[in-house]
Amino acid sequence: MSKKKQKSKASMYLSLGTTLFGTFSVARRLREARSEGDRLQLADAVVSAAAIVTSVALLARELRRLAEDEG
After folding, report:
1. Could you say which of 23, 45, 47, 56 would form a disulfide bridge with 29 (CB–CB 3.0 to 4.6 Å)?
2. pTM of the full predicted structure?
3. What residues contact residue 69 under an 8 Å CB cut-off, 6+ apart?
């Protein structure tokens, strides 16, 4: 695995907050797609939701690593 520069804790929390804020947009898109019966928009919203879940998991892992390095 390649070594990459670690982000600061503040940067990590900002990224996490931004990612979580995106969940509101995705939730709205999911509701709209369901109400309109648009399967393509629904698929797009589901993929976006999966991307958000993955991003949160990656950020949480990085925060754990930062905490381990500090402690």
Report:
1. 45
2. 0.75
3. 6
